[in-house]
Design a protein that fits this description.
Elements: H1 2-21, H2 27-59, H3 66-73, H4 77-90, H5 94-101, H6 107-119, H7 122-127, H8 129-137, H9 140-153, H10 160-168, E1 171-176, E2 182-187, H11 190-218, H12 225-238, E3 255-258, E4 265-268, E5 274-275, H13 277-284, E6 293-294, E7 300-301, H14 312-322, E8 335-339, E9 354-358, H15 359-367, E10 371-375, E11 378-382, E12 415-418
Antiparallel strand pairs: 1-2, 3-4, 4-5, 6-7, 8-9, 10-11, 11-12
Helix pairs in contact: 2-3, 2-4, 3-4, 4-6, 6-9, 11-12
């Protein structure tokens, strides 16, 4: 019976793929089918874990089915062990287990909830309906931050325990790989990691900009941004942290506010990572403070003069939200902030009318008759009339000199993203 059901599922999946490949399905139908396929994938994963566990139990393997799962489902041993661990963690939580087995909660979000159980308790996780609802609706990268924040709030020590756990796990390893390259891997607490990231990106951006100028003047090849990051690490360690003449930079950006319910000071990084009070006090010794005003939805509002660039605090918050250039996904260090409606034009210069754009896209908007339009909070990029029906690709802003796949400008006002 189980094998027959599996064969029927395989046949249906092949039919779905064939309909998409032959072009007989409409875009709306495909979009709805993709939503269904999300549940199918989660249910299939739950079946694989349960089936592997059943075999392991009957044959007394003693590993919960990890080896069977890895070999039968084509997973790595690490992935298999992770899924088995997640299944064990949620087996005593009926509501969560039902949500996973019915496909409402993805495998990735279920794993985050299992980690949260380790930090709090199964009873607390199972009792929080709002957390489970977020696990069903949020994408993994969003829910990872939410689950971490939820666990920190229940520590009762402003995140000091979580910070101590991260500090205890900090490490850097280097080894010679088989391909002759030297590999480096590091793990840091959230504050140290943010400082290191900001320093490297600032120095890499300086190098990348210098390459851009030199390549134009001297005709030399430009380094990619990743290559600049590697060279920045070498430069900063060789110069004891000095950036070799670059402008002073902020090591880290921290957003602090007073919790209305408790009256306690809450400090977070722009991406939502919580900092304990002791770390905030340490950082505040040499900090520059910038006053911000928030609206009722928690969005920062700036009533400042009309400018084309944002402050570093604004930039980091926007980059944490969008991850890079809204059009071609260029690295955040290559992006500047473009005001859709600056104050001089009647706008309010807030986060919800600001977007990060890389230099190439900025040039496209201001010097090649492209236009950014905003309708109901949705930004769209419109090409000039003569380009509306022609193929166009933006050069890769990260320095490859080639057209970046998937980065072509939309030719008819394509929806790029919707603001929350």
């Amino acid at each position: 019976m189980v094998l027959e059901a599996a064969r029927r599922t395989e046949t249906s999946a092949k039919e779905m793929l064939a309909r998409v490949n032959d072009g007989s399905a409409s875009s709306e139908e495909i979009r709805e089918a993709l939503a269904v396929s999300k549940a199918i994938a989660a249910i299939n994963s739950a079946f694989q874990v349960a089936g592997a566990a059943a075999i392991a139990g009957r044959e007394r393997h003693g590993d919960g089915g990890a080896e069977v799962l890895a070999s039968s489902a084509g997973l790595s041993r690490r992935e298999a062990h992770s899924q088995v661990k997640t299944a064990r963690a949620i087996q005593d939580m009926p509501r969560l287990r039902d949500a996973v087995e019915s496909g409402r909660v993805s495998v990735a979000n279920a794993a985050r909830l299992a980690e949260t159980v380790d930090k709090t308790s199964a009873a607390e996780v199972e009792a929080d309906s709002d957390l489970l609802a977020k696990a069903e609706s949020m994408r993994p990268e969003q829910f990872t931050k939410e689950a971490r924040r939820w666990a920190v709030e229940r520590d009762g020590d402003d995140g000091a325990s979580e910070h101590a756990r991260q500090r205890a796990r900090r490490r850097v390893r280097m080894w010679n790989a088989d391909d002759g390259m030297v590999h480096l891997h590091g793990e840091f607490d959230v504050a140290t990691g943010q400082r290191i990231r900001n320093r490297l990106r600032a120095e890499a951006a300086r190098m990348h900009d210098a390459d851009k100028k030199n390549a134009k003047d001297e005709g030399i090849d430009r380094r990619s941004f990743d290559q600049c990051m590697a060279d920045a690490l070498d430069s900063l360690t060789a110069n004891n942290g000095e950036s070799g003449g670059g402008k002073p930079i902020a090591d880290i950006c921290v957003v602090a506010h007073v919790d209305d319910a408790t009256g306690r000071l809450v400090a977070e990084l722009p991406d939502g990572g919580r900092l304990p009070r002791a770390v905030l006090e340490q950082l505040a010794c040499n900090a520059k403070f910038t006053g911000l005003v928030y609206d009722r939805d928690g969005k920062p509002i700036w009533r400042t003069h009309s400018v084309r660039t944002a402050t570093e605090a604004q930039r980091q918050i926007l980059m944490a939200r969008y991850g890079g250039c809204f059009h071609c996904a260029a690295h955040p260090a290559l992006c500047q902030i473009h005001h859709i409606k600056p104050v001089s034009q009647g706008g309010s210069t807030r986060l919800d009318n600001m977007i990060p754009v890389c230099w190439d896209c900025h040039q496209k908007v201001h010097h090649h008759d492209w236009r950014i339009r905003t309708t109901n909070g949705v930004h769209t990029l419109h090409p000039p009339e003569q380009l509306r029906h022609g193929p166009a690709r933006a050069p890769d802003p990260r320095g490859s000199g080639q057209n970046s796949g998937g980065s072509s400008p939309p030719t008819n006002g394509t929806r790029l993203f919707a603001l929350a």
